[in-house]
């Protein structure tokens, strides 16, 4: 299967792709139309595209699916079709590098993958600037807060009207709690959430006046095992903390509305992916894919196959 549909509200395209050694693009807000009922889905933090095995396939999907639709969001001006200039070199780009994350420990091999990616980009003429992750601490925290409130509001909208009819075991304790939080959320809190998202977006726009692209780790640690995020509890704060700790820079792109691309970039000693993430200003989806294609041509990963489910002797 070359492509799989994916939605990303806080990394749900990029994190699975990163865990599996695949390519995942969270598009610029409004890049892919979602229909009149979802014109500003989840307050605009969610986007839809695909997970794929190659940058070229992701670019092809973007060319097919992107386009202006009548709705509340402006045309992001993506310079389509991306495939026509995917293999052309960019001019020198200012790359801001965040090898570590605020308030979250990044495993050494994953930080090293980011530094190796920075060295690779430097070798191709792009100036590198190492950035202080502490500068982004408030933005990361605010992004996670926005996401958590939006998800609670979404559960309240979808399940709130039937919550009294839900048996205890119809949904998990965590979902029951999310419904309660969303139903109890005040209009003032939702309004403040929207203002917070706007402040995050403005701060990221300011960031991209000094750098053209941000390079970060996609994951803080090895891909988690199944069951690492249990739903059999009602501590929503703990759940969001676990999610944020795994992919600390993921929600930032969603709340700011900017594109973010995760790429395989080597493996660790256990053979598990050590992915990196590229982020750019709104509308730079094609630029990120061009950089991703540069990585892909020099270190192709599509020949790698997962061990699980492979016939004996064919896994590599």
Question: Which keywords apply here?
Answer:
316 residues; alpha+beta; Amidase signature (AS) enzymes; 8-stranded mixed β-sheet
Biggest sheet overview: 8 strands, mixed
Q: What is the N-to-C order of secondary-structure elements (H for helix, E for strand)?
A: EHEEHEHEHHHEHHEEH
CATH superfamily (homologous) name of the domain at 3-130 and 198-221 and 244-298: Amidase signature (AS) domain
Question: Which whole number gives the mean pLDDT?
Answer: 91
Helix content range? 25-40%
* CATH domain topology of the domain at 3-130 and 198-221 and 244-298: Amidase signature (AS) enzymes
Q: What percentage of the residues does DSSP assign to strands (E)? A: 5-15%
- CATH-defined architecture of the domain at 3-130 and 198-221 and 244-298: Alpha-Beta Complex
Q: Under the CATH scheme, which class of the domain at 3-130 and 198-221 and 244-298?
A: Alpha Beta
Shape: globular
Number of strands: 8
Number of helices: 9
Structural class: alpha+beta
The radius of gyration over CA amounts to 19 Å
Note the gap between the termini.
Answer: 18 Å
The unreliable regions are none
Question: Strand sequence of the main sheet, in spatial order?
Answer: 1-3-2-7-8-6-4-5
């Amino acid at each position: 299967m070359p492509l799989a549909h994916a939605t990303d509200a806080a990394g749900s395209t990029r994190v699975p792709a990163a865990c599996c050694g695949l390519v995942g693009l969270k598009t610029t807000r409004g890049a892919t139309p979602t229909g009149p009922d979802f014109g500003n889905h989840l307050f605009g933090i969610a986007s839809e595209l695909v997970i794929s095995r190659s940058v070229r396939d992701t670019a092809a999907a973007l060319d097919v699916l992107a386009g202006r639709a009548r709705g509340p969001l402006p045309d992001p001006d993506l310079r389509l079709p991306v495939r026509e200039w995917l293999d052309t070199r960019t001019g020198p780009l200012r790359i801001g590098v965040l090898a570590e994350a605020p308030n979250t420990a990044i495993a050494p091999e994953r930080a090293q993958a980011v530094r190796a990616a920075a060295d690779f980009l430097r070798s191709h003429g792009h100036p590198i600037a190492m950035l202080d992750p502490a500068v982004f601490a408030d933005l990361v925290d605010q992004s996670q807060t926005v996401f958590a409130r939006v998800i609670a509001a979404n559960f309240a909208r979808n399940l709130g009207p039937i919550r009294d009819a839900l048996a205890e075991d119809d949904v998990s304790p965590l979902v029951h709690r999310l419904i309660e939080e969303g139903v109890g959320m005040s209009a003032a809190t939702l309004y403040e959430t929207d203002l917070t998202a706007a402040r995050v977006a403005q701060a990221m726009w300011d960031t991209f006046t000094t750098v053209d692209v941000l390079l970060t780790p996609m994951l803080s640690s090895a891909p988690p095992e199944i069951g690492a995020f249990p739903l059999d509890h009602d501590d929503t704060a703990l759940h969001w903390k676990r999610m944020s700790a795994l992919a600390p820079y993921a929600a930032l792109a969603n709340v700011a509305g900017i594109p973010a691309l995760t790429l395989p970039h080597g493996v660790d000693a256990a053979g598990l992916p050590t992915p990196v993430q590229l982020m750019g200003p709104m509308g730079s989806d094609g630029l990120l894919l061009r950089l991703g294609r540069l990585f892909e041509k020099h270190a192709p990963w599509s020949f790698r196959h997962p061990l699980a489910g492979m016939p004996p002797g064919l896994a590599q």
